[in-house]
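Hi R.,

Here's the input for the FE2/S2 (inorganic) cluster complex you asked about:
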Amino acid sequence: MSEDRFEILLYRPYEKLIQITIQGKPFAVPENNMLLRCFQFLAPDTIPYGRYCWNEECQYCRVSAIKPDGMALPQVLSCKLMAEEGLEILELSAELKWNLHQLLNPDATEIPPPPPPAE
Ligand code: FES
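And here is the predicted structure with FE2/S2 (inorganic) cluster in place:
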């Protein structure tokens, strides 16, 4: 299977990348995709190994965010939130912090402890 074919299956069709920020840092992600899938686009070596159900059940994908129109989203599931140009991600769940640590802290020399096990 070619890499292009893999992307077609993994991501909803997109023609361009849009800008979002995660804790103040800008990133380009594919339009027309849920935020968790965009996190996977940015961190393909870690997000697939997170404990995500991708279906509103586990709650491990929670974030807080501000939409481009200024609307605050204090607790939202990134597996159900469509990414949009200018979306600001403020807080990340412990699972997302773990999976996005290297992306958000490229110069870090220490790896934080993993999130606690599921209850
Ligand atoms: S990934 Fe499980 S609720 Fe979003």
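One thing worth noting: The chain is about 25% helix and 25% strand.

Cheers,
M.
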